[in-house]
Amino acid sequence: MADPPPAPGDVLLYEFMVPAALSTSALALALRVPVTRIEGILWQKRAMSPETAIRLARYFGTSAEYWMELEAAYALHAARDAAGPAIARDVQPWPGQNADAGPDRAPRNR
């Protein structure tokens, strides 16, 4: 089993804030957001919003997609841990599923 993806708050703290010697208050001020928003992300009590991702991307010179992909990977892993076994038990695959398509292939728009 693969290691869980890092929490966005851990990445923010250890890869961006600590190397830049940025406090929570200083980052919140620079992003023009409440300190509680940054604290919530750092303490894994709040998900990364698209708006916060855009602000972080602008400030740190990354992309908003970078932050949102971190959030999506983290949230999906947590959901699989929490609900995956029950879903596997309760939901049967669609009988018309194309076995060659693989489990991660999204259906085409019609």
TrEMBL record:
Keyword terms, alphabetized:
DNA-binding, Membrane, Transmembrane, Transmembrane helix
Q: Which residues cross the membrane?
A: 12-31
Task: Name the domain of life.
Answer: Bacteria
Q: In the UniProt record, does the keyword Nucleotidyltransferase occur?
A: no
Q: Does the keyword Signal apply?
A: no
Q: Which residues form the HTH cro/C1-type domain?
A: 49-67
Q: Which GO terms describe its molecular function?
A: DNA binding
Ranges where the record places region Disordered: 88-110
Q: Extract the PANTHER family matched here.
A: ANTITOXIN HIGA-1 (PTHR36924:SF1)
What name does this protein carry? Addiction module antidote protein, HigA family
Taxon lineage: Bacteria, Pseudomonadati, Pseudomonadota, Betaproteobacteria, Burkholderiales
* Originating gene: higA
